[in-house]
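Hi R.,

Here's the chain you asked about this morning:
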Amino acid sequence: MNRIKFHVKKGDNVEVVSGNFRGSSGRILQVLPKKERVLIEGVRIIKKHLRKSQDNPSGKIAEREGPIHISNVRLIEKGEKTRKGAKKEAKAKPEKAKS
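And the predicted structure, written out as tokens:
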């Protein structure tokens, strides 16, 4: 079996960078590798109509998160929004000895 690797995993904090939910952020609840999608807490809330049952005698409209394509999310490190390459630290240049 081949395991597909992605840039994010369950529990990471991410920001949506494109699509209708651009600018939203949250924690990843689930990664769906075969469909290349992720579920993000509080983003893309959809309504699902449930029929009558013993649990819901009068039916119910349940709200839950919908999947977003994994290419539309960016990892947020340590609570700060980062851009690709913007996190490089400036290296201190060694001082020349004055004579």
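The chain has a mean pLDDT of 85.

Let me know if you need anything else.
M.
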